[in-house]
């Protein structure tokens, strides 16, 4: 009996909030670093930076909504709540708006990543491919928002059963969500593999190339989270919804945050780019009057010019991928051509 009581009082609320707050502030830190790099280091602010900031704003909105849901009882068993029916409907209400913020955050993250890819390689064919993918993603996102908005007419009936009206079958709502999720998974795979294929033939040390490809593949975390989220989607319709929503909520948070984090890390790489250092030595040389003057010279002055050119060439090849990640393309800086 004690075990049953302990199980029934188990709560996942703290874990859900801890995950969201930790990942949220990691994303915020990377956003700040990205802004610094683009404005002060690389000086190549573009539309991908605007889009990722908009995505982060929707991530913030999602955090506020999840916090409200947690205050209502998200992560706790329904029978342990006071006024369980009212709390359940309240959570359902704010979760509907969270799903809207979710898909919008995902959409603007993909916009940012697409334009960032065009910084690496800007070609007409690639523009058409990315534009087509983003058009599909946009249509799927609009469809989800429309279906969520008209899931009940009026929408308030979704969480207030005293309001007269009609509601769509849950199967219809979930089918549209599955379609949007499918588009997102396919686009994630395309956006993740594109930079790797582009950089694969670049002459860079194997270790650095592997590191860059690993950074680019971080978006797969969001892809896996998206796929798993579909599996736990049924938690929104169980008799213990407030507790069974834990899985889908945790995965939704992981998908959003990991997507933004993965989009920001490559943009922050110029902070860690190796820069050539000039060693300076100080010597005392006699002047015409017998006194000694301080003369400072660089080590490069004693190095043969051919050696300098060779070292510069090696450094250029070794860092070519990093330069490509920071060079602004016409699409990234020209709003008229933004994807």
TrEMBL record:
Organism, scientific name: Photinus pyralis
Spans through the membrane: 20-37, 49-68, 97-118, 130-156, 176-199, 211-228, 248-272
One CC-aspect GO term: membrane
Pfam hit, one: Fung_rhodopsin
Compartments in which it is found: Membrane
Domain Rhodopsin: 33-274
First-listed, main subcellular location of the protein, grouped into a coarse class: membrane
Keywords on record: Membrane, Transmembrane, Transmembrane helix
Membrane topology: Multi-pass membrane protein
InterPro entries: Rhodopsin_dom_fungi, SAT4-like
Keyword Transport: no
Name of the molecule in the record: Rhodopsin domain-containing protein
Family: Belongs to the SAT4 family.
Top-rank lineage group of the source organism: Eukaryota
